[in-house]
Structures are given as structure tokens and as C-alpha cells.
Amino acid sequence: MSTIYDIANACGVSIATVSRVLNGSSKVSPKTREKVLAAMREQNYSPNPFARGLGLDSMKMIGILCTDVSDAFFAKAVSLVEHGLRKRGLDVILGCSGTELSEKKKYLQLLLNKHVDAIILIGSPFRETNDNSHLEAAARQVPIVTINSLIDLPNVYSVDCDVSSGMKQVVELLAADGYTSILYLYDQLTYSGQQKLQGHREGLAECGLPEQPELIRRVERTLGEPQGLVEKLLDDKVPFSAIVTSEDLIAIGAQKALVARGIRMPVIGCNNSILAECSTPSLTSIDNRLDILCPTAVKLLTKILNGEKESAPSQTIFPPLLVFRDSFTVKNTVDK
Length: 336
What we know:
- With 336 residues, the chain is of the alpha/beta class.
- The protein has 3 domains: 4-52, lambda repressor-like DNA-binding domains (434 Repressor (Amino-terminal Domain), Orthogonal Bundle), CATH 1.10.260.40; 61-161 and 290-317, Response regulator (Rossmann fold, 3-Layer(aba) Sandwich); 163-287, Response regulator (Rossmann fold), CATH 3.40.50.2300.
- It is 43% helix and 16% strand.
- It has helices at 4-11, 15-22, 30-42, 49-52, 72-87, 101-113, 133-139, 163-176, 191-206, 224-235, 248-261, 274-278, 290-305, and strands at residues 61-66, 91-96, 118-122, 144-147, 156-161, 182-186, 216-218, 242-245, 267-270, 284-287, 315-318, 321-323.
- The strands form 2 sheets. The chain has a 6-stranded parallel beta sheet, with helices on both faces. A 6-stranded mixed beta sheet has the order 7-6-8-9-10-12, sandwiched between helices.
- 41% of the residues are buried.
């Protein structure tokens, strides 16, 4: 199915020019008008009837998908993206799909049926391990922008943070301070989860530390399960001197177990959510730069909608930022 963006690209004009042709505007030269009409005939282009009813070929509507808006990470991202789009005169349809593939496909098709102008996918759960053909099909109809994930498909534009390097840096800092038995707790192996685990392993290898299976453990993203696991490891006298986690909530659960036993050791989370600031002690966390990723995604999408696809990078990657708080400070570089 051809879109207004395909017609604009084929003719080397903006989508605004194509829209003027569709609406019979006199502001288009006869030569350009015929060129656009010929491209429409060649590509069997059919304008969006709902948008045409408003006098233009755009609904000025963006679809946003996340898996669970009650999650602090997704809630913040949705807020930042919606605010940025609204400032540019674009409205939003939000869907919360959950993590089941069938539901993600259902919500994706729902947005397409609503004739949105583009879709923003928030979070790495939308990148499937084996088959992303449903995203490829959707991207043939409208541009797709992903936040916190890399998906290499035509008409898909990804804005991501290199959390792998952040995890690697954390291990190196801990090892340099003498913390060499590091417990790593994670919840899911989505694309982002895999990157975090890879960074942890690379950090161990870089520091010449052995990878110990008993110190790499999967838990639910709750307070209770990581707290219970840490308590059991302490009871079983499994030696570890620091804790790193894939999510702030997991880190806080682990930290509760330590506080209850009167044990003080480095604990580091990831996402730098509001939870990190509210915990006691306050949590050192890897900031995956949502404050930069989301505005960048909005700016990128605006450029694409304005017919500037050629100058829109398919992948934009930012470095992470380690935010030090009470749960860990580097002895040699940060005053305690």
C-alpha cells in the first residue's frame, strides 16, 4: 500500500506539495501537479478517505505503543513523547499491548486501521528475536520510530541508548574498587535485557573476572522476589560483594534484603527512575537517557513527516550516564 510519503519521495517533493495536489490547490505548478498525479497512478495510490474529509491527506495523529503504561519507565517515555508531539500540533492514540506477540500484532493493526500518520514503539519488547515481519509490513504503510531498541528494517528509525557499555563501565568501576564478586539480577531478556547482560559479561571479561552462574540470576520485576533471593543467597553463604541489576525496582528489592540484615555493599540499578531517588539509601543507577531519547525521536519523526527522509538517520545511539547516589560511589573519584 503506497502512502503520501512514497509519492513525495518518488517525485522529489514534500508531502505538503502532494497534499496540495490532492486538494486541488492552485499553488502547485501544472508540471509538478502532473508529475505527482502520474506517480499516484503508477503506484495505485489511494488517499486516506478520513483525512481527505478534513481537507488534507494527514490525520495529524501518531500512534504510540508500549507494553504497560503503569511501568515507571514507559510512563515517563509516553509523557515525554506525547508532550513533544502535542507541541508540534500532533495528536496521539496510545495502546498498551502487554508482552504477548499476538496482542502486539493486534494493537499494531489497530493503529494502522485508525489511519495514523506514524507509529512510535516504546521499549525493546517490540523487537522479536526471530521474526519481525509484522513490523516490516506495518512500516510499508507508515513510518515507525522505536525508542530504546534497534530494529533494522526499511522505514523504521531507531533511537537507543548503549546500555551495554553502561553495564560494562559499572563492572569495571566496581572491580577497580575491589568489588570482584558481583551479583547480577535481571528480569527479561528482551533486546535491552540482552544488551545489559552482554555488557555485564564483557565487563567481567575485561577485568579478568570469572563468570559465575550462581551470581547471574533471573527474577521477576518486583520488590519481593529479588529481596527473597538475596536473603536466600545470604543464608546459603553464597559470596558476593556488590549487586548490579537490570531495573531500579529489582535493585531496591535487593537493597531491602541488605538493609534488613544490616549489610552495606554497592547496589546499582538501571533506568535512573524516580524510584532510584526515593529509595533508602538512594540508588546509584544507569541513566538510559529518556530525557534525550524521547525528544530526539519526536524531532526525527517531525523531519520524516515533513518529507525529509533522506536526512533522517535510521539509527541514533546515545551513551549512557551513570548517576551516583548513596548506594555506591567510586572511592577513587567521588568523595563519600
